[in-house]
Amino acid sequence: MISKLKTAVIGAAVALGLAGGAAAQDIKFFTIGTGGTAFTYYPVGGVIANAISKPPGSRECGEGGSCGVEGLIASAVSSRGSVDNINAILSGLRNSGFAQSDVAYWAYTGTGTREGEEPATDLRTIAALFEEHIHLVALADSGINSVADLAGKTVSLDEPGSGTFVDANLILEANGLSIDDVSAEALKGNAAAEALRNGKIDAFFAVAGYPTGAVVELASAADIKLVPIDGAGADALTDKFGFFSQSDIPAGTYEGVDAVSTVSVGAQWFTSVNEDEELVYQITKALWNDESRKLLDVGHAKGQSITPETALSGLGVPLHPGAERFYREAGLIE
Question: What is the pTM of this model?
């Protein structure tokens, strides 16, 4: 699907170039690694890619056209998630990607879950985006009422390469369990929801901004609960790692599901220090213009919480020089 889309985009760009002379030479492609299509990164990535793009031949900003970066075609690419995106940025496979703040900080410093690995010092931040909540989902009649109740159960921790997998392991550990105490599966999004509904697993973890598609669909088809991640286990987690904070998912976020206390972590947008400074400056400027605000507000439920005022919240990785230039000009950095 992605390759067909990219081929189509390139074909259209070449056609525009043939019609418009030098236009084809001015086209720039910029990829955004996201996550599974059933979670939050992918749809938000699509909104942002749309906001920062302005293909050759577009109508002018303010005249019904795009207000993105001149000649830029950005695309949101589905991926395994945070760890995968950071590795892809560092290898040059993708221009940018979303990741949890904890995963990115550990990669940048070579600490935490990346202890003993070479620090990823080329990693840079474009913006903090929104808060992600750790969902622990089970059927309403499962008898699973706490993380401790997962012992001996079949639980999907998501794929290795995802931020969910990293955080699920940390949560088990903070509650006196390990991956060896559960029968672990590695299912993403819709696959995990379907397995839970069909009785193939007992619970699954998902780290995503609420409401997240896979859980919305599951709640409309089955009686589910969100299991609290609170008490001493949550305290141990938030005390040890400053990225996590206690936060609630409100009642009614998912059909028939009560409010639950859980743990949240920031979702942020990263790139490489090797990306062109002027391009990243223009991308950051496009992200925060008034037209992008309209797209963010209607494009996804999390869009309204993506604001310039929180763009520098909780950063553990330095800003890209292009992004930093924009925030200084905007008065967000003194």
Answer: 0.84
Q: Does residue 117 belong to any structural domain of this protein?
A: yes
| Total domains present in the chain | 2
Q: Is 116 exposed, middle or buried (0-12, 13-18, 19+ CB in 10 A)?
A: exposed
DSSP string, 157-223: ---BTBHHHHHHHHHHHHTT--GGGSEEE---HHHHHHHHHTTS-SEEEEEEPSS-HHHHHHHHHS-
- Tokens of residue 109, six digits: 């410093």
Length of the chain: 334
Rg of the Cα atoms in the chain: 20
CATH of the domain at 35: 3.40.190.10
pLDDT by 10s per residue, the chain, length 334? 444 344 334 444 444 443 444 445 589 999 999 998 888 999 999 999 999 999 998 888 877 778 999 999 999 999 999 999 999 999 999 999 999 999 999 999 999 888 899 999 999 999 999 999 999 999 999 999 999 999 999 999 999 888 999 999 999 999 999 999 999 999 988 999 999 999 999 999 999 999 999 999 999 999 999 999 999 999 999 998 888 999 999 999 999 999 999 999 999 999 999 999 999 999 999 999 988 999 999 988 888 999 999 999 989 999 999 999 999 999 999 8
- Which of 328, 332, 287, 295 has the alpha carbon at shortest distance from 126? 287
Nearest in space to 193 (alpha carbons), one of 211, 210, 205? 205
Q: 217 near 37, Cβ under 8 Å? A: no
Q: Are residues 173 and 242 in the same domain?
A: yes
One domain for residues 119 and 145:
no
Between CA 205 and CA 189 the distance in angstroms is: 9
